[in-house]
Amino acid sequence: SYVKRARGISVASYVRATSYSLGYVIHADALAMNVSVASFKHSGSTEVVAPSAESITEAVTTSGLQFGNNGDDASRLTVDITPVTTNARAWPFTTYSYVILRTGMNGTSASDRLRSGATCENVAATVAFWQWFLESDQAKNIASQYGFVPL
């Protein structure tokens, strides 16, 4: 039978409580719920790979993160990192999350560039947060603690 769940934790909970069930969740949710995970063997390989920080990193570094490697214009900031079939140590079901930020509207005045109620201080704090998030070892360590793989 088929049972749909809306969120990863609820999928993992259902799989954990239901014998012979199968589900798909992000690595962090599987770790948080301590559920068994499947392994994968690439065609032509004798190695078996399971999801882990190392195998996910292998998938990303094998494909590369060059914007536009999927045929899109590089200005769209899209990257194709799946499926990885050339590296037996790479987890083939790997993807990434987007962060979408408003960059402003046409015009040069603050009112043309800021949403209603925003200030330049809000924008500066947002930029500082994302710089910390993307560049700091502390943010990478926090992500790793929760089962995410920093790129």
From TrEMBL:
InterPro entries: Phosphate-bind_PstS. This is PBP domain-containing protein. It comes from Ostreococcus mediterraneus. The lineage of its organism: Eukaryota, Viridiplantae, Chlorophyta, Mamiellophyceae, Mamiellales.
